[in-house]
Structure formats: structure tokens, C-alpha cells
Design a protein that fits this description.
The protein has 450 residues and is of the alpha/beta class. The protein contains 13 helices and 16 strands.
Length: 450
């Protein structure tokens, strides 16, 4: 078989397909929706994002910015789509989810080297180069196949989705526009609490009824994406030092920082919907409506989507993967996306970007690429292939993963922010040189249609 098989039409899968196809490979991209839906998706579009419309910080000098900038310089389709469908979100990169998925779907379906197959894959092909990019909601049948392939028990945790509220149901006499410390413009709506309001809300949230977890015996939460009610149960101040942190926000009615605050982020370009930042939860729908309407400014909130819980599946990457995203024992199989043990949309895109390039090179019999050690892509590939396996957990890109500065470099700059900026600049310089010298088939935008 002379085509590359990609299983999964999420962010990692479409990026892998784009990179492999642009390099000249024939690609067949399998997406099981709408033949078989998942508990979290709502449409049949490729690259539908479900948990949040934010792709996190795009502020220069940060680790998330570095990852995005590497992908932009590497010809990423997802970054192209994000730029085309961006909505205001301060220093963050947020997109209109519907337009974003439509943009990518149209680009993929129009690519002359890509065939999209709408069917569920039940077995992993052994006679072709394949990329498994099935994401956190891998089907039961394919999960079983992956377990057999990796020779390991299934790993999983529960992930949750934040509610979305109709914009015209928010009381603007209470909720005010601002971003923390004014960064990026007044792109968030903020619902302020005084101490008494916060205490009542915390008590109700802590006592609210959750949806029972019936399918699995053990709950393993990812610490960076805890349900809001789980945070509340950890202590009275956990929320206001976490997602309800009021620092850098000033209530125009008082001129002071509130005791706590809930932030709402614009969900689409029409600005008719807002998502609740950090408010992923798995409460019963009736409980969500009751408790969340205790938030000042949301007393009459109309919920366009309630929070919900879904399974997130990932392999123990360091046991089976190399830094090329290729399986050590099955070199024709690559993995990409959250199933590798990265957390986050852009992190998933990065692994898809690398897997797509390397799948094409593997088909051609060429040496596979290892991303430069200073780069954010290189740091993620290093983590999923060589981290400690005993307590392996999904990670976002952070400076902790990046190669540190030398002692001399660190001594040359005193402020932490300046050291981070230096790390970013050095990484981008190394990445640019690597792309110039190692990726002989330069990324290109394909406009041709089938």
C-alpha cells in the first residue's frame, strides 16, 4: 500500500495529513464522525474543538507562544486556520470554533493528495504506514487494538467541558469588561463577588450533585483541568486562588479588586455566546443551572451548553515511542495528539506536525526528523519519548520542559521574564536553521482542488 493512513480527524490528524500530503504523500484520513459520534462532539466537521475555544497565550516570550510560532514557521494548517478565524481574547489566541472547523475541513477536503474516509477504523493496518491520532475519545474497539499493540494497560483520566452562556442573558450592569492587568485589551467579561457572595456560592458548589461515573471504577483527574466542584471541595480559598482569581481586575463600581471573579470569554465572532473560563464541571444539568446562576451577573443566564464529562485516553508514550513519534517495536506506526500524553490543542497539533513529516520520510526511506532540542516541539517529543514512566501524566508546554539556558546565558539576564525571552529567541533561531537545513520539502500552501 503506497498511501499513508491517518486515523482521526482532530487537530493532530488534520495537521499530520496536511504535512504529509504537502510533502508529496498520498494520504487517506479516516474520521468516524458522523457515522459514529463521540460524547463530546456536536458536528461532523474535522478539527472540531470542544472544551474551549482558546489556544492559550500568544504573548511573545512565553512557552505557548514559542510553540505556536514554531508551527507558524513550519507551515501549520491549524495555525493558518486560527489566524483566519481569531476572536478577541486578550493575550490569548482564541478562535470562532465553527468557522475554524469549517475552514480546516474545506482545506483538507480540497487537497489533491488527501482522501477523507468517513468510517470507523476497527483495526490498525499492518501493511501500511499509519498515524494513530484518535485523541482523547478513542472508540472502544480501537482502544482495545491499541492496548494489544502497545502491550500495556489502558491509561485514562476524565476531562470536562465548560458551560457556554448566551451573551444577551448576562447582566452588564454587574459584569464588566476587562483583562487582567489590561493585557491585550478588555476582552473578557468579569463577574465580581464580594466575600459574602463568594461564601454562599462556594458552599452551594461544594454540596452540588455530580453525575455519577458509572463506566469506570477509578477516577483519575488531570490536575491542570480539574472540575470546578472538585476544586471547591479542596478548600474555601482554592477557587479564588485558581480560576476565580481576582488579581489585576478592577470593578468599575468600586474601583477595587473584587474578592473573587468569574471570567467569561467570547466564544465566536458574533459575540453572542461566552464560555466560562476554567469552569469545566460534571454536575447534573439542573444543579449547574441552580448553582451557576448564583454568580453575580448570571442570575438570569441562558445556558447554550452545560458542562459535561468525557473520557480521555492516552498511552504511556515513553514505553513505546521514539522522539520521531514512531513506535520503537512497530516502525510503520506513528502516534500523534493527546493520545501520546501531551495536553492541549496546540501541543496536539505539534505532534501531528512532526508525525506527518516523519511518516512521509519513512515511506520514502529517508532519515526521520528529530526536532531541535531547544525547540518547544523538540521538548514535547522528548517528553513523550523519554519521561519517567511510573507516574506518566499529560503535560502542556512549559519552560520546565524546555532545555535550560547555560549558566553564562542565565547570568547575562537578571529578570525571569528576560531569561524566558532569551530562551524563546534562541529556540526560534535554532528551529529556523533546522527547518532550512533538514526539511528539504518546504511547507507550502496547496490551493488546488480535486
Amino acid at each position: 500500500m503506497n498511501e499513508i493512513i491517518i486515523i482521526g480527524g482532530g487537530l493532530a490528524g488534520v495537521e499530520a495529513a496536511w504535512q504529509a500530503a504537502n510533502a508529496g504523500a498520498r494520504v487517506r484520513l479516516f474520521e468516524m464522525r458522523p457515522v459514529k459520534q463521540t460524547p463530546a462532539h456536536r458536528t461532523d466537521k474535522l478539527a472540531e474543538i470542544v472544551c474551549s475555544n482558546s489556544l492559550k497565550s500568544d504573548e511573545p516570550g512565553t512557552a505557548p507562544y514559542l510553540l505556536k510560532e514554531e508551527l507558524r514557521r513550519g507551515g501549520s494548517l491549524v495555525m493558518e486556520a486560527a489566524a483566519a478565524t481569531r476572536v478577541p481574547a486578550g493575550a490569548a489566541l482564541a478562535v470562532d470554533r465553527e468557522r475554524f472547523a469549517t475552514y480546516i475541513t474545506e482545506r483538507i477536503e480540497a487537497h489533491p493528495n488527501i482522501e477523507v474516509a468517513r468510517e470507523e477504523v476497527l483495526t490498525i493496518p499492518n501493511d501500511a504506514i499509519a498515524i494513530i491520532a484518535t485523541g482523547p475519545l478513542t472508540s472502544d474497539a480501537l482502544t482495545f487494538e491499541i492496548m494489544k499493540l502497545t502491550g500495556d494497560d489502558q491509561l485514562y483520566f476524565y476531562d470536562a467541558i465548560a458551560p457556554i452562556i448566551a451573551a444577551d442573558s448576562i447582566d452588564r450592569s454587574i459584569a464588566f469588561l476587562a483583562a487582567r492587568y489590561g493585557k491585550g485589551g478588555d476582552d473578557y467579561l468579569n463577574c465580581p463577588f464580594n466575600e459574602e457572595e463568594y461564601a454562599r456560592f462556594h458552599e452551594s458548589l461544594s454540596e452540588a450533585n455530580s453525575v455519577p461515573l458509572q463506566r469506570f471504577e477509578q477516577t483519575r483527574w488531570f490536575e491542570a483541568c480539574l472540575p470546578i466542584e472538585e476544586l471547591a471541595r479542596r478548600g474555601i480559598d482554592t477557587l479564588r486562588f485558581g480560576p476565580m482569581k481576582p488579581v489585576g481586575l478592577f470593578d468599575p463600581r468600586t474601583g477595587r479588586e473584587p474578592y473573587a471573579a468569574v471570567q467569561l470569554r467570547q466564544e465566536n465572532l458574533m459575540a453572542d455566546a461566552y464560555s466560562m473560563v476554567g469552569f469545566q464541571n460534571h454536575l447534573r444539568y439542573g444543579e449547574q443551572a441552580r448553582v451557576l446562576r448564583m454568580i453575580p451577573g448570571l442570575e438570569n443566564a441562558e445556558f447554550l451548553q452545560f458542562g459535561q464529562i468525557h473520557r480521555n485516553t492516552y498511552i504511556n508514550g515513553p514505553r513505546v515511542l521514539s522522539a520521531t513519534m514512531q513506535m520503537r517495536e512497530h516502525p510503520n506506526i506513528f502516534f500523534a495528539g493527546q493520545i501520546t500524553g501531551v495536553e492541549g490543542y496546540v501541543e496536539s497539533v505539534a505532534t501531528g506536525w512532526l508525525a506527518g513529516l516523519n511518516a512521509n520520510r519513512s515511506q520514502r526511506g529517508e532519515e526521520l526528523l528529530i526536532a531541535p532540542p531547544r525547540s518547544a516541539i523538540g521538548a514535547l517529543a522528548r517528553y513523550v519519548s523519554s519521561a519517567e514512566t511510573k507516574n506518566y501524566q499529560p503535560v502542556n508546554i512549559t519552560f520546565a520542559l524546555l532545555e535550560p539556558l547555560t549558566k553564562d546565558q542565565a547570568r547575562s539576564v537578571k529578570r525571569k521574564r528576560d531569561r524566558h525571552s532569551l530562551q524563546v529567541n534562541l529556540a526560534l533561531k535554532e528551529f529556523d536553521e533546522w527547518v532550512r537545513t533538514s526539511i528539504t520539502q518546504k511547507p507550502q500552501l496547496v490551493a488546488a482542488t480535486k
